[in-house]
Amino acid sequence: MALEWDAVSYEALADPMTRWGAAFLERLELRGDECVLDAGCGTGRVTELLLERLPGGRVLAVDASEAMVRAARERFAGEGRVRVERRDLLELEVGEPVDVVFSTATFHWIPDHARLFRRLAAALRPGGLLAAQCGGEGNILRVREATERVMRGERFRGFFEGWEENKEYAGVEVTKARLEAAGFERVRCWLHEEPTRFDSVGKLAGYLRTIILRGHVEALPEEERDPFAVAVAREMAAMDGPLLADYVRLNMLARKPERETATTGVSVQEG
Ligand SMILES: C[S@@+](CC[C@H](N)C(=O)[O-])C[C@H]1O[C@@H](n2cnc3c(N)ncnc32)[C@H](O)[C@@H]1O
Q1: Is 268 helix (H, G, I), strand (E, B) or coil?
Q2: Which of 71, 108, 190, 236 could form a disulfide with 7 if both were Cys (CB 3.0 to 4.6 A apart)?
Q3: Does residue 189 lie within any of the structural domains?
Q4: How does pLDDT run across 57-107, given as a tens digit for each residue?
Q5: Which residue stretches, if any, does this entry annotate as coiled coil (predicted)?
Q6: Number of domains forming the structure of the chain
Q7: In the prediction, which pLDDT does 3 show?
Q8: How far, in Å, from the CA of 64 to the mean position of ligand 1?
Q9: Whose CA is closest to 84, among 121, 40, 120, 128?
Q10: 265 close to 216: Cβ distance less than 8 angstroms
Q11: Dihedral, CA of residue 179, residue 130, residue 67 and residue 164, to nearest 10
């Protein structure tokens, strides 16, 4: 099962993810009556924007974190167009296939993309759309460099012995190949940069602890979590240039074929 999250802090800090989610949504052509799966909905900030695009549609919002699911359920209480379910996307099964799978800021937290894409393809109706954005190749290199230096330092070294980062910042070509292997066609993938500035070391440290270093702090006892995040933020402040997280996003658009050939299972386009 995936990590637990601090949903209250995430809700307060997720402005960058919400901004990118909004921009990604803007480029999607939706009729407005689709049934959309939001894969990794978090507290539902982006789900809410998705819902605005679906006046006659519905959203199935899923997330593996109990705290995130609770927060999303509170957000959409009384909203009949949204159902929130606690699910691991790697085990996903939906009763009714959806028209669109939408996801933001989630797939890099799930290392097994090949399996993830197979589960998402299975959840889509024939002809359905996958539209997703997550951390991609080259993501937060400066942050990772600073983090590694702090992890190697005397204070924290012992906690990280044998610890491995469980993230997948995939590139364009490997993602195209994985999506096609999962049965998708008309696959488009691209990377873009989203450098994100912070006003102060304190603000950056809070953001790192809740979001970017979410997995790292799990390896630490409670009393070392804030000091670790502060040490990484200070290390970043000591680097050349402005105080920023050098985000790179991987975007993907792909279609599930209208039908499969009965004999080979190879997908073909109708018409
Ligand atoms: C950074 S948050 C993104 C939330 C939201 N989509 C947004 O853009 O603000 C990543 C979310 O992915 C969820 N997640 C990670 N691994 C998952 C998995 N295997 N199955 C379902 N959700 C998962 C986490 O619980 C978390 O809520």
Answers
A1: strand
A2: 71
A3: yes
A4: 999 999 999 999 999 999 999 999 999 999 999 999 999 999 999 999 999
A5: none
A6: 1
A7: 81
A8: 7
A9: 40
A10: no
A11: 20
CATH of the domain at 38: 3.40.50.150
| CA 240 / ligand 1 centre spacing (Å) | 32
DSSP assignment of 132-199 equals EEEEBTTTTHHHHHHHHHHHHSTTTGGGGTT-------B-HHHHHHHHHHTT-EEEEEEEEEEEEE-S
pLDDT tens digits, residue range 108-132? Answer: 999 999 999 999 999 999 999 999 9
Closest CA to 89 of 116, 112, 111: 116
Which of 188, 187, 185, 189 has the alpha carbon at shortest distance from 268? 185
Does residue 202 sit within a domain? no
Domain presence at residue 108: yes
Domain extent, residue 53, equals 7-139+168-197+246-260
Average pLDDT by stretches of 10, the chain with 271 residues: 86 97 96 98 98 98 98 97 98 96 98 98 98 98 97 97 94 98 98 97 97 95 97 97 97 92 43 36
Cα 108 to ligand 1 centre (Å):
9
Residue 208 has a pLDDT of: 98
Going 89 to 28 to 208 to 14, the CA torsion angle's sign is negative
Cα–Cα dist 173/44, whole Å:
30
264 Cβ contact partners less than 8 Å away, ≥ 6 residues apart = none
Nearest ligand 1 atom to the CA of 45 is: 9
Is 44 near ligand 1, meaning CB less than 6 Å away?
Answer: no
Helix H, strand E, coil C: the string for 27-88 is CCCCCCCCEEEEECCCCCHHHHHHHHCCCCCEEEEEECCHHHHHHHHHHCCCCCCEEEEECC
> Within a domain: residue 30?
yes
Is any atom of ligand 1 closer than 6 Å to the C-beta of 107?
Answer: no
